[in-house]
Amino acid sequence: MFESLTERLSQAFRKLRAPGRLTPADVQAGLREIRQALLAADVHYGVVREILARVEERAVGERVVESLVPAEQLLGIVRSEIARAMGGEAAKLRLSGRPAIVLLVGPAGSGKTTTAGKVARHLLRKGRKPVLVCADPQRPAAEEQLSALACRLEIPFVSAVGAPREDVERAAEMARRELRDVLVVDTPGPPPGVAPPPFVGEIAAAGGASDVLLVLDALVGQEAVRLGEAFVPVGFTGLVLTKLDGDARGGAALSLPTRLARPVVFVGVGERLDDLEPFDPERMADRILGFGDLAGLAEKLEEAGGERVAAVAARVREGSFTLEDFLTQIEAMSRAGPLDQLLSRIPGLGKFAQEGKIEDEFRRTRAIIQSMTVEERRAPHIIGASRKRRIARGSGTTVQEVNQLLSQYEQARRLVRGFGKRRMPPGWGGGPQATR
Ligand code: GDP
Ligand code: MG
Description:
Distance between the termini: 22 Å
Strand content: 5-15%
Strand order of the largest sheet: 3-2-4-1-5-6-7-8
Bound molecules: guanosine-5'-diphosphate, magnesium ion
Structural class: alpha/beta
Number of helices: 21
Helix content: 55-70%
Number of strands: 8
CATH topology of the largest domain: Rossmann fold
Largest sheet: 8 strands, mixed
């Protein structure tokens, strides 16, 4: 997710970090590079201008330029402005009404039908009783695709392809009778730039949909803004950004909330029913800036179960974890889900996910840690040159690879400690998330 943007931004900050304190020229050069990184990631120029203007204003306001404060403060400002551009706070489904109606709209091929299934799965997890409704009379295969998903989720499916608006009303009556509390309604996707058929807007308005989610494909970049504008007359309440698992450059995630004035509620990160994540702007900003998402990782690992994993997750939150914990985590991850998704949450490891070297990397990491003594795993600072040579020999790797692992671990540990001690520098957004 966003690898090249992340790479460019962390490069810009690495350069800034070198002297520790910033001169005004450093700040200007840094801002220029951030600007170029955002534009190269296909972020809308208007959004880039807004982010940069706010960063500059705050940087000056918080006396970054004049009093030469550390680069961390500038990084903190950039982080919170990127989060702000993505909507600031996490948005949730409203789900009001009996049943609540969640309507999915969007251009053809953006992922509406797939997302309908994913949203139903998400609702089931939350203890809701969803019904999947197909209101797409245009594609004969649409019904089949959605009813197959309903079948897999073991929830009711209703076809509303005859007279969509009336059929949805009937589905709502049925839901009330059978005590189902949410209708997830799939609609047809018009070709790019074309408005959806009128009945879509009618269901949204007359049927009282509490949530109208505009589904857009992140792979099309800022073009998504134009595609989304065709749906303004329908009146959507939030966005779903799909295919973030592909090589999206990040432009859409950063441009859409501002340009379409609606929050991203979910992101799609794969083709499976489980591949939907609630969108949290602050966590996403962390991932874009290469900080990973350790809180999200801890949650995923806890979901995967296992007491040892839960204990590690707790230590991650406390801010202390050893190389042994690192190994436990890696082993748990093999069970917790697609490795690339999990890895992208660990600072510095996201790129391995992209390059398809995950399995190799895991095997090597495991071998290296297993070649260490218990003492070394608990206190890695005792590992000097001769121990490194022994570990490399024992694990069939090179000293360079041992060094690499130790510095990755060190990076993760420092970050975890920072979170644990709630030691964020001023300007890191300030909200409760910032002290995670
Ligand atoms: P619709 O025309 O808007 O209903 O789009 P579909 O739901 O039929 O999806 C179109 C294609 O995109 C299908 O092949 C889906 O499997 C794929 N797709 C949807 N969401 C995602 C996602 O988050 N990641 C990936 N990789 N593929 C997705
Ligand atoms: Mg469809």
